[in-house]
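Ticket #4471: structure output looks truncated?

Reporter: J.K.
Steps to reproduce: submitted the chain below (332 residues) through the standard prediction queue, then opened the result file.
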Amino acid sequence: MKQENPSKNSPYSVALSSVLPSVLPGHCLRIGTRGSALALYQANITKELLEKSCAKNGFPYTFKIVEIKTTGDKVLDRRLSDMGGKALFTKEIDHALLDGRIDLAVHSLKDCETWLPPAFEIAAILEREDTRDALISWNNTKLKDLQADALFGTCSLRRTSQLLHLYPHFKTTLFRGNIQTRLKKIHEHHEADITMLAIAGLSRMGLIDQITEVLEPDILTPCVGQGAIGIVCLKDKIKLKELLRTINHHKSYEAVTLERFFLDHIEGHCGTPVGGLVTFENSDRVNFIACVATPDGSSLWRENLSLSLNEAPGEIARLGREMKKWLQAYDL
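Returned output as attached by the reporter:
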């Protein structure tokens, strides 16, 4: 399903004047999050950083975490692309922001749509963790040693397409659920031989020891925003944004912004087998690696660019447009 830019004919297309005023609503700010163990961990990291910032800068605010059940957490037997996309992990939280039940939202940025609702803004990004993917296998077997008909459990078209490009004889099966659920499917129920998970999530859950093999970006290019925690609020909350900027990690913010800029130009969504990663080579140069593929992995295009910060937006936009044409040639 093709994701449309919400600035056009979207239920979120509301005038900013219709949302809450540009002031903090009181001394207790409510942090909205999904209820998974990983989401709550990330929300608590954010809460702790904000509390430290308030203590340091003399802001008179306390914080409360509000758990919100999302459609993506409830429906686990279908791909996101078959149900309407990544908004299934955010739309209930979006509505809570709009109607004032929460003041800010904490997301894994890889779960956020390419185009946020127009009333919203990513106000801060915390320091990014490891962006790479990890292989998990029930018998600790590495990729090169797996049998030709190994069964790969995943819900990610990006991971599927890149893996099948390398190992076309592998079989795939749908895996949904949180980190702990997917690990149980491998180690306890043997529903598949292997799966892949983001190292950042495993690290945050204290599960690094579950990793069989680390997959470098030139083998398995991460999805845009992987490893980054984003904080979203309403655009017109000026004072709140000033507070959130005190915990923003500038280089992580710049890197993810460039990645999402690429996704914007490629018009990528959860049904697009696409990966993109920006890393800093030094203070004024970045490396950008991007990958698109057909879902069956039969065709794949990976590009690696070294760019100055000044030229990066233009070159990343150009590559996004070229990769968009490549995908269109395959009717993707």
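Triage note (M.O.): checked the attachment and the full token line is present. Residues 16-127+228-249 form a domain with the D-Maltodextrin-Binding Protein; domain 2 fold (CATH 3.40.190.10).
Status: closed, working as intended.
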